[in-house]
Amino acid sequence: MSKEFIIGSKVRVVALPPYVKTAEPMPMLRPPDVIHLGEEGTVIDRRPGGYWGIRFTKGAFLLDSQYIDSTDNPPESQSESNSTQEL
Fold first, then answer.
1. What is the pLDDT of residues 28-87, one digit of tens each?
2. Do 7 and 46 form a contact (C-beta atoms < 8 A)?
3. Which residues make Cβ contacts (< 8 Å) with residue 81, sequence separation at least 6?
4. What backbone torsions phi and psi does residue 86 show, to the nearest 5 degrees?
5. Read out DSSP for 36-87?
6. 23 three-state secondary structure
7. Vertex 55, ends 49 and 56: CA angle to 5°?
8. Where do the domains of the chain lie, and which CATH numbers do they carry?
9. Residue 3: pLDDT band with limits 50, 70, 90
10. pTM
11. 26 DSSP assignment
12. Buried b / exposed e across 24-44, counting CB within 10 Å, b at 16+?
């Protein structure tokens, strides 16, 4: 199941794909080193096939949802500690 993001929300790269595709009318494949692990970008649109258009400092690229995560989500350790405090 692919993750859902809100247009305009901030996301972080959690894994690098073997290549990245530019989010232009005529897309081009680029090497993965145009973005960096941990780099943050803004979601600009949703594309077919589970791809998201994301604006980074070096341009806009299409990434599958498995390579990005929302920066709005609390880390796992925080959410686990909150649930144990409620018990």
1. 999 999 999 999 999 999 998 889 999 999 999 999 999 999 997 555 544 454 555 555
2. yes
3. none
4. -70, -25
5. -TT-EEEEEEEETTTEEEEEETTEEEEEEGGGEEESSSPPHHHHHHHHHHH-
6. coil
7. 120
8. 10-86 (2.30.30.40)
9. confident
10. 0.76
11. S
12. eeeeeeeebeebeeebebebe
Burial of residue 53 (number of CB atoms within 10 Å: 0-12, 13-18, 19+): buried
pLDDT band at 19 (very low <50, low <70, confident <90, very high): very high
- Contact present, 20 and 63 (Cβ < 8 Å): yes
For the chain, how far is it from start to end, CA to CA, in angstroms? 30
Residue appearing with tokens 């920066």: 71
**What type of residue sits at position 51?**
Y
* Residue type present at position 73: N
